[in-house]
Structure formats: structure tokens, C-alpha cells
Design brief:
Chain B: Keywords: Membrane, Transmembrane, Transmembrane helix. Chain B: It is found in: Endomembrane system. Chain B: It comes from Neurospora hispaniola. Chain B: Belongs to the membrane magnesium transporter (TC 1.A.67) family. The complex is a heterodimer of chains A (336) and B (145). Chain A has 336 residues and is mostly helical. Among the domains of chain A are: 72 residues, no CATH class; 65 residues, Serine Threonine Protein Phosphatase 5, Tetratricopeptide repeat (Alpha Horseshoe). Helix content of chain A is 70%, strand content 0%. Chain A is built from 16 helices and no strands. In chain A, helix 4 packs antiparallel against helix 5, helix 12 runs antiparallel to helix 13 and helix 14 packs antiparallel against helix 15. Chain A is globular. Chain A starts with 13 loop residues before the first helix and ends in a 5-residue tail after the last helix. Chain B folds into two domains: 71 residues, no CATH class; 64 residues, no CATH class. Chain B is rod-shaped and about 95 Å long. By secondary structure, chain B is an all-alpha fold. Chain B starts with a helix and ends with a helix. Chain B is built from five helices and no strands. Classes of the chains: A mainly alpha (336), B mainly alpha (145). Chains A and B meet through helix 1, helix 3, helix 5, helix 8 and helix 10 of A and helix 3, helix 4 and helix 5 of B.
């Protein structure tokens, strides 16, 4: 089934992005009709992104022109897209710097200088107060951060992102980006903190619960800070995966994580006698962990069985995820 | 299943039409008779009630139509969060087909994927590079099939 142009193509695999980009001539042709439909501009934006990704710059430029003609070059979203276009077409670092300067110029010219800020500067002349980024210009602020990160200036990107979050702390997407940024730097506790902020903003997001569990599991497997914090991370991860399953029946990712964590917990318990010392966290008792482990195994093998047979109503899973689950099961010596 | 519900609905419609027709005929006959018998006296309209069988037929027809329509509805959407979310994960687009066999317009998959794909922060240069590599590794042929 061809993916829909109504949704952002960022997460699609390359083959589907290609399918989308190949629709460009048809969509661009059909756009000459004078009546606007609700989905028209979302379609154009996503088509632009797909074309940029597949390297079809010509079609991307056409989409861009249409968007600009409709919303005007001053529209902040259009400006961000225009920047994206030049980012994609930049060939060397110098050109990227130029794009970055452009973003800076836009942001400088429009930064809202709040009255309160002047007062703060008077009161504390020795401290620096950055101009708050204009909320209207958020798309461009975000592009600037993404570009900084793409250019490898990670710490600059983190600073800018923290600044953005200072002024709009309810932006779940930005928190998630911050978490990913810290995560790639190996700063697990910061990444976990940022993900917890995301969960505060969207507590029902089952994929974020699973993500947090994954990060905590990785923190537990890599942290060299002794058994205590390791166990704490594992206990937290167990809770997170359990919550993600609670929010979503038959969630492959959640069960996969649950299986990983319980296997590890059971192994560690066998290795070392129980370590029940600090009251900061409590591991569930071994029986519960065993039962969770059994549940995860049963569910995983059910999912793997059904989706290998392509049963009706079980075709929504990602094939790679199913393959990974199969591998995990066979590693544990459980045959389907 | 659709043909059953459709047949029932059409049958109910026929019954209803028949009942209406009967009622109309009955009324016409009544007024004709009244006009014929009481031309001299001041024409007080005879308060004639419908025969019971027409009334029953109308009610039965309505019930049959309702039955047909109810049978023909799509399965209801899950109202529990975890069931709904599980359906998205397990069945994907297939679980949300409309009557015409196309994916429903308001289907959007997991509404929280944007928190992981983060479209505002997309690194377009890396995506382009990855795509070019995918093409180079023969991914393009697989995509065209």
C-alpha cells in the first residue's frame, strides 16, 4: 500500500519515500486548479520533504514556489522550508555557514525584547540575558538547532535547544530532540530526564514509554557506576516497559524490552545474592519477575508466529522488529 | 454480510412504501365516499382512522429498516485506549479500512510517532546521504518491483 502524502515522511523507509517522491509530477500538475482543499498544503510540504530526501531538487523547488506563492515568503514556516531547501543543496561547509548566518539574521531581526528583560539587565548588569527567541519564529529556531547538530556542533545545538525550552517548556518535540542529543553523547541521565519531560507532556505516548525504558536499559548495561545504580535503572526500565504494554495491547517493542530486562534481572539474581539495601527503589520480587518473563515470552512468540504466517489482523508489525524478536527468542532457546 | 443487510434494508423500504401507498389509497377512498354521501349536509370531515394493518405494517417496516442499517454498520471503533493502540500496532492500516476498502481519512497511525521522528528537527543532509547509499546498494531495484 502506498504511503499517504498527508503525513510527514521523516520516518518512512527509503523505498516508501521514493514512492512518495515519484508522485511529484501528478501532484504538481493537479495543483493548477483554483480551489483549495484542506489537505493540499500538507501534501505539498510532505512532497517537498520526500523530494528533498530522494534528491529530486527540481520538484522540490517547484513545491517550494507553490508554497511561497500561497503563504508569502515572510511566513515563518515557509522560511524554515526555504532554509531546509538550501541546507539540502549546500555542497560545502561554507555554504552551510551561510545558511546558518541567514537563520541568525532572521532570528536577530525579530527577537522579541521583552520589557521585563530590560529590567532584568538593569538589575543584574553583570549577568547576561539572552533575548528570548520569538515563539512565532520557532520553526526557524528549530531549523537552526538541527543545522548546528548536523554540522557537528553538538554543544552549540544543546545550548540553543535548552534556551528554546526555557521559553517554551511545553514543546514535547523539542524535549525529545534534546533527549536524543544527550543520548548520542552518552549522557544517559540527562537523556532520561528529558524523556521524562516528554512523558509529562504526553503521558499516553506508549512509544515514548518504551523509548524511555530502552534508554534506561542501555544506561544499566553500560553504566560503570556499580551495581546499585544499575539495578535502579533496570527496575525503572521494567516499570516503563510494563507501562507501555499497559497502554497498548500486543506492543511488540514493549514486550521485547520487557523480555530483555527480565532476562537480565533473573541472570543477575542468580549471580549475586539479593542486594536489598537502599530504599530508593524496590525491585519486584523474583516471582513477579519470572511471571513477567513468562508473559513476555508467550506474547512475543504469539506475535512472531502470527505475523510470520501473515495472519489477518497481525500484519501491522514492522518486519525487522519481528525478525529481531524471533532472534531474541531463539537466543533464549525457545523455539516457536 | 453486506448483502444480507442490504436485502433487509431494501425489503423494509418496500414494506414502508407499500404502507404509505395503502394509507394514501385509504384516505382517497374515504374522502371520495364522504363526498359522495354527504353532498347536501355541511361536509364535516369524517374522522377516519387508519386500519390497524396499515399501522402495523408501517411500524414493522421501520423496525426492519433499522435492523438492516444496524447490521450494515462497520464494526465499532475501540473505545479503550489500550485496545485502540494495540489495534494500531497489530493491524496497522488494515484495521482501519472504510466501507469502500480504503484507509479511513482520519487514520494516522500512532499519533505520537512525531515525538520520535521529530519533523521540525529533520537532518535533511543525513537523510539524503542515507538515501543515496540505499540507491547505490541496489535498493532502488527492490523499490521498483
Amino acid at each position: 500500500m502506498a504511503p499517504s502524502l498527508l503525513f510527514n515522511p521523516a520516518k518512512l523507509p527509503p523505498s516508501e519515500a521514493l514512492q512518495l517522491a515519484q508522485q511529484a509530477p501528478v501532484v504538481l500538475q493537479g495543483s493548477s486548479s483554483p480551489s483549495e482543499t484542506v489537505d493540499q498544503w500538507a501534501t505539498f510540504e510532505n512532497l517537498l520533504l520526500a523530494c528533498l530526501r530522494t534528491g529530486d531538487d527540481e520538484a522540490a523547488a517547484k513545491c517550494m514556489d507553490q508554497l511561497e506563492a500561497r503563504f508569502g515568503p515572510d511566513n515563518e514556516r515557509v522560511m524554515a522550508l526555504r532554509g531546509l531547501l538550501s541546507e539540502a543543496q549546500a555542497e560545502n561547509n561554507g555554504e552551510l555557514e551561510a545558511v546558518l548566518k541567514q537563520y541568525d539574521a532572521i532570528l536577530e531581526g525579530n527577537s522579541t525584547n521583552l520589557v521585563g528583560h530590560d529590567r532584568l539587565r538593569q538589575l543584574f548588569p553583570d549577568r547576561r540575558f539572552a533575548n528570548p527567541p520569538c515563539l512565532r519564529l520557532q520553526p526557524i529556531t528549530k531549523r537552526r538547532i538541527a543545522l548546528l547538530r548536523s554540522m557537528g556542533r553538538v554543544s552549540d545545538a544543546a545550548t540553543a535547544l535548552v534556551q528554546l525550552l526555557d521559553f517554551s517548556p511545553t514543546d514535547a518535540e523539542a524535549w525529545s530532540e534534546l533527549s536524543d542529543l544527550y543520548f548520542t553523547q552518552g549522557l544517559y541521565s540527562q537523556a532520561i530526564y528529558a524523556l521524562e519531560e516528554v512523558l509529562l507532556l504526553s503521558p499516553n505516548a506508549w512509544n515514548i514509554h518504551a523509548r524511555l525504558g530502552e534508554v534506561q536499559y542501555m544506561a544499566a548495561t553500560t553504566s560503570g557506576s556499580g551495581g546499585g545504580s544499575q539495578q535502579k535503572y533496570l527496575a525503572e526500565a521494567l516499570k516503563r516497559f510494563a507501562r507501555s504494554i499497559e497502554l497498548c495491547d500486543d506492543y511488540l517493542r514493549g514486550y521485547y524490552g520487557l523480555k530483555l530486562v527480565t532476562t537480565r534481572l533473573l541472570k543477575e539474581q542468580a549471580k549475586q545474592a539479593k542486594q536489598t539495601d537502599d530504599g530508593e527503589f524496590t525491585l519486584p520480587d523474583p516471582k513477579t519477575i519470572e511471571r513477567l518473563d513468562e508473559l513476555a515470552t508467550a506474547k512475543l512468540s504469539e506475535i512472531v508466529r502470527h505475523s510470520t504466517l501473515k495472519d489477518r489482523g497481525w500484519r501491522g508489525y514492522d518486519e525487522r522488529e519481528v525478525a529481531a524478536a524471533r532472534e531474541l527468542l531463539s537466543q533464549n532457546g525457545i523455539e516457536r | 454480510m453486506t448483502w444480507i443487510s442490504n436485502t433487509i434494508t431494501v425489503f423494509g423500504g418496500l414494506l414502508l412504501a407499500h404502507a404509505c401507498y395503502s394509507a394514501q389509497e385509504h384516505a382517497a377512498l374515504q374522502s371520495f365516499r364522504a363526498a359522495a354521501t354527504s353532498t347536501l349536509t355541511s361536509s364535516t370531515p369524517v374522522a377516519s382512522s387508519l386500519p390497524v394493518d396499515i399501522a402495523i405494517e408501517t411500524i414493522v417496516a421501520t423496525l426492519v429498516i433499522v435492523l438492516g442499517l444496524v447490521l450494515g454498520t462497520r464494526p465499532l471503533r475501540p473505545i479503550q485506549w489500550r485496545v485502540w493502540a494495540g489495534k494500531i500496532e497489530r493491524e496497522g492500516e488494515e484495521g482501519f479500512l472504510g466501507n469502500n476498502g480504503e484507509v479511513e481519512k482520519d487514520y494516522m497511525g500512532n499519533p505520537f510517532t512525531y515525538l520520535e521522528s521529530r519533523p521540525s528537527f529533520v537532518d535533511i543532509r543525513r537523510q539524503r546521504k542515507e538515501f543515496a547509499e540505499w540507491i547505490k546498494n541496489g535498493g532502488g531495484d527492490a523499490g521498483k518491483k
